[in-house]
Structures are given as C-alpha cells and as structure tokens.
Amino acid sequence: MKPSDMVVVDLDGKVVEGDMNPSSDTPPHTYLYNHFPNIGGITHTHSPWGVSFAAAKMDIPAVSTTHADTFYGDIPCAPALNEEQIKDAYELNTGKVIVDELKNAGLTRMLYQPC
Ligand SMILES: O=C(CO)[C@@H](O)[C@H](O)COP(=O)(O)O
Q1: CA atoms within 13 A on the CB side of 115
Q2: What is the interface pTM, i.e. ipTM, of the complex?
Q3: Which of 27, 35, 68, 96 could serve as 91's disulfide partner, Cβ 3.0–4.6 Å?
Q4: Closest CA to 25 of 83, 90, 102
C-alpha cells in the first residue's frame, strides 16, 4: 500500500480525496467520530489478547497500574450484534453498539477529558 492509495472521507463517509474505495469500516468510524467529536483517532487492531477477551465476551479488567496509565477502569466489551442488526447494516450497527456501550459504561465524559 502506498500513500497515494489512501482515501480521505468526510464525516458522512463521502470520498473527498483518492481513487480507491474507502474501507468497509467507514460507517462505524464516521459514526464514532460524529458521536464523540473530540476523539483524535481510532485504532483498529486484532491483538491476540484483545481478541481473546472479545471472543469470551468479557470486559478487559483494570488489574494493573499500567492499564490505569492509559485507560480509566475496565475496557468494555460491546455486545454481539443480533441477527437483525447483522442483516440490516452490519458495519454501521457495529459503530452503534460501540457508542451505546461506551455511553452505558459512563465513558463519554472520559473521552472528552484531555490526557
Ligand atoms: O477487521 C476487519 C475484519 O475482521 C475489517 O476491519 C476489515 O479488515 C476491513 O477491511 P477493508 O474494508 O478496510 O479492506
């Protein structure tokens, strides 16, 4: 992948720069940016440890000061999508359950605090 392969989209997901198709993750990412305007970026990883907790449908517990250095409290695991959410708009609904989970966990306030 080269820098010229990058695609820039606006907050509605419309391509504003680049010739490629945007990522299929564009709907959940724009949904997150639109609901948390102060976030500076989203990192999507498949770390073995993170995936392990997600597969077990578990929050990642705050058990160390190292964890506390970068995140306040347990890192919540969003609920799995139901069949209707998957069939309807899988990617967008992924963003919706993440936003709902962060709000339910009371993390909205934290996301707006400067580090
Ligand atoms: O993590 C996943 C699938 O597991 C997705 O994020 C895809 O990797 C998105 O691929 P592109 O549409 O960006 O090529």
Answers
A1: 9
A2: 0.91
A3: 27
A4: 90
